[in-house]
Structures are given as structure tokens and as C-alpha cells.
Write a structure and sequence with these properties.
Blueprint lengths: L21 H20 L3 H24 L3 H21 L5 H24 L5 H24 L3 H28 L3 H21 L4 H35 L3 H21 L3 H29 L3 H21 L7 H28 L3 H25 L2 H25 L1
């Protein structure tokens, strides 16, 4: 029996936000509040104090329903009112049973945490304000977990720890989004990994948070994809620069790394189209790797024979890139440009073989190969013009002129 100046026995409601039936609890609380109001009107001073506790809990549960529905603005008002009523009870309950005071302390911290969450999650709240409010929520839930831990209520302790880790995950997630906008992909990866770990912990304490683990896993894939894409693009840029400096072996290594990175990015892509494009890029960079090897043989080692196989591999890789790339109407320009590039490699495959035969004074065989090179370069030039790629157009015009020069040379010798 709870000490009271009236003959009424007041029941302690232990609210568990994960397990309590909210509507059922509200109905029972409403009945208890009506009874307490009658006693308060009769001058029962103890009933008046209890009334603050139950009215506070009623407001908190009403707020919880709005919180779950995403109505953070109105939930804020109810959590605030609930917290005020609980605080009044705490100030006036020094002689009450300890379990009531402990429950009031827990509810006070819970409502403060939820209030901070709602401030953070309200529409149009600035990111920095969101983070600040969520950190305040974490502090409240941390204290709450200590309170219920001391009174040995494991389920309530799990609830508090679940919320604490969930909100920590939200903080890390927001910090990751901020880093992503700033294109600091390493920091974004770090923060989103931390968010994933926090959500996993939250789900351990309460499985209802499992959906956030799944959502964060998708986000993490997107971030890792951007990180790998960024690395691949940088390696590609370095490879292009090295090739321009005549450092073809080093360029080939960079192309190889970029190809592997794009392949990895394709496996991280969450959209099928993106996966196809990145997979195609992987093949295209592999073609560039073989092209760099061929350039090393021809330009730095004067070894046309060894270059033949490299151009053949470059052509095959470029064909694989074209086959892998999406075939929608908006992709036609890219496919034409890549077809031009494939024919550029094919032309040099024939031309390198022709040079090797020319060096061996096999003029008839060389002439036939140079004519095949001419055909490949001409077709490639047509595709480059249609795709409006001026750089590739210029390369193919130069290559075509070289092939025609070799054809003229062979004809002169044969005549």
C-alpha cells in the first residue's frame, strides 16, 4: 500500500516505449487521472502530487504516438508538457516511495531526450543544429541508462541503450552526409561506418532498429562507391598525364589500378545502370593499359612485333566495354565514341603488324595490313565525327594519314 492521506491505492505505471501498448496504457492512465482529479477536488494533497506524475506520463505517451508518426512539431509540445509535469512531481515527492521517484527521474530523462530528438528532426532544421540537439539526446539517454541500470531493470536499460546508440548513429550519419557534400570521401566513409556500427548496437539492444542497419548498409555502399570512383578517376588522370610525358610503363600501371577500382565500384553500385557503366569503365581502362604497353614497345623500344598483341588485347577489352555499357537512346553518343576508340586500337593492331612485315621486307603482306588499318581508322573517324569528340577525331585523322603514308611507301617499293 502506498502512503496516502486517502484510502485510494495508486498504481505505478512503468512505461516501456518498445513493449507497452500505447492506446491501452493511455486508457488506463486516463481512468487513473480521473480518479486522482476527484481526490484532488476533495482536498487530497497526495493525490494532487500523483496527478502530476500521471498527467506527465500521459503527455509523454501522447507525444510518443506523434513521434512515431513523424509529427515532430506537435510531439515537441507534448514532450515539453510531459516533462514539466514530471518535474513538478519530482519537486514535491520527497516523501514518496522510492520507486516512484526513480520512475519520475527516468521519465524526465526520456522526455528530455525525445524532446531534443524532435528539435533535431523537425523540418528545415539546419544540419549543425540537428547534430547539437541529437548529442543532447544522447546525453539524456546515457543518464537514463545509468538510472535504470542502478535499479536493475534490464529491459528498460536495453531500451535506453538502444536509443542512445540509434541517435549516435544519426549523428554519425549526418556528419557523413556533410563530408560527402564537401567531397571528403575518406571522412564520409569513416562517419558512415561509425553510423553503421552504432545502428548494429542499437539493433542488438532492440531488434526494431534492424531496418536502420539495412538502410545504413545501402548508404555505406553509395559512399564507398563514390570513394572508389574518386580514386579511380584520379588514377585515370595520372595515367593520362604520364602517357603524355612518354612514361608509358608507369601509365599502364595506373590504368591497371583504375580498372580494378572501377570493377570494385561496379560491385558496390546500388543501381543496375551505374553498375553496368562502371563495369564498362573497368574494361575501357584495361584497354588503355594495353594501349600504354603498346606505346612503350613502339615509341620507346622500337618493337612493333611486341606491340601487335597489346593492340589486339586493347581492341578486345574495348569490345567488352562496349558490350557491357547500357544500350539506351541517351547512351548512343558514348557508344559511338567508344566504337571509334576500338577501331583506333584495331587500326594500330593492323598497322603494327604491317610495320613488322615492312621491317622484314614483306611488302605485299605489309600493304594488305596497312589497307586494313586504313579501313579501321576511316570507320573510327566516322564514329568520332558523329560523336563530336574532337580529340579522338584528331587522333584518327593523324593515324589515317600515317596508314596512307605506309600504303604509299609499300606501293612505291612494289612498283
Amino acid at each position: 500500500m502506498i502512503p496516502t492521506t486517502s484510502a485510494v491505492e495508486y498504481k505505478l505505471f512503468t512505461f516501456d516505449e518498445f513493449r507497452s501498448n500505447l492506446q491501452d496504457t493511455l486508457t488506463k492512465l486516463d481512468n487513473q487521472i480521473k480518479l486522482l482529479k476527484v481526490k484532488d477536488d476533495e482536498g487530497d494533497s497526495i493525490a494532487k502530487v500523483y496527478l502530476y506524475l500521471y498527467q506527465g506520463l500521459y503527455s509523454i505517451i501522447a507525444a510518443e504516438r506523434k513521434y512515431r508518426a513523424g509529427d515532430y512539431l506537435n510531439a515537441t509540445n507534448d514532450y515539453g508538457e510531459g516533462g514539466k509535469a514530471i518535474s513538478r512531481f519530482q519537486r514535491m515527492s520527497s516523501g514518496f516511495a522510492i520507486e516512484y521517484q526513480q520512475e519520475a527521474e527516468r521519465l524526465d530523462l526520456f522526455s528530455k531526450g525525445r524532446l531534443s530528438e524532435c528539435h533535431a528532426l523537425k523540418k528545415d532544421t539546419r544540419l549543425e543544429e540537428q547534430i547539437t540537439n541529437l548529442i543532447e539526446a544522447i546525453n539524456s539517454y546515457t543518464l537514463e541508462s545509468e538510472v535504470v541500470g542502478r535499479v536493475k531493470k534490464p529491459l528498460l536499460a536495453y531500451n535506453a541503450k538502444a536509443r542512445m546508440n540509434f541517435v549516435q548513429g544519426l549523428v554519425n550519419r549526418l556528419e557523413g552526409q556533410k563530408a560527402l557534400v564537401g567531397k571528403d570521401y575518406q571522412l564520409a566513409k569513416k562517419k558512415h561506418l561509425e553510423a553503421y556500427r552504432a545502428f548494429v548496437k542499437a539493433a542488438y539492444y532492440n531488434p526494431s532498429y534492424t531496418i536502420w542497419v539495412e538502410e545504413q548498409n545501402k548508404t555505406l555502399k553509395i559512399v564507398l562507391n563514390k570513394l572508389v570512383n574518386d580514386k579511380a578517376a584520379k588514377e585515370w588522370g595520372v595515367a593520362f598525364k604520364l602517357a603524355g610525358e612518354g612514361k608509358f610503363t608507369e601509365s599502364s600501371e595506373r590504368c591497371k589500378l583504375a580498372s580494378k577500382l572501377y570493377l570494385r565500384a561496379s560491385k558496390l553500385a546500388t543501381e543496375e545502370k551505374d553498375a553496368l557503366v562502371l563495369h564498362a569503365y573497368s574494361h575501357m581502362l584495361k584497354a588503355s593499359m594495353y594501349e600504354a604497353n603498346a606505346s612503350e614497345f613502339i615509341k620507346n623500344k622500337n618493337d612493333a612485333k611486341s606491340a601487335v598483341r597489346q593492340y589486339e588485347l586493347a581492341t578486345e577489352s574495348m569490345k567488352e566495354a562496349i558490350d557491357a555499357y547500357p544500350k539506351r537512346d541517351e547512351d548512343k553518343t558514348v557508344l559511338k565514341r567508344w566504337t571509334a576508340q576500338m577501331n583506333y586500337y584495331l587500326g594500330y593492331f593492323y598497322q603494327a603488324e604491317g610495320i613488322h612485315n615492312l621491317d622484314g621486307e614483306k611488302y605485299d603482306e605489309a600493304l594488305a595490313l596497312f589497307k586494313q588499318a586504313n579501313e579501321a581508322f576511316q570507320f573510327g573517324l566516322k564514329e568520332a565525327v558523329e560523336s563530336r569528340d574532337e580529340g579522338l577525331k584528331s587522333l584518327l585523322e593523324k593515324s589515317l594519314a600515317e596508314a596512307n603514308g605506309y600504303i604509299g611507301m609499300c606501293k612505291t617499293v612494289l612498283d
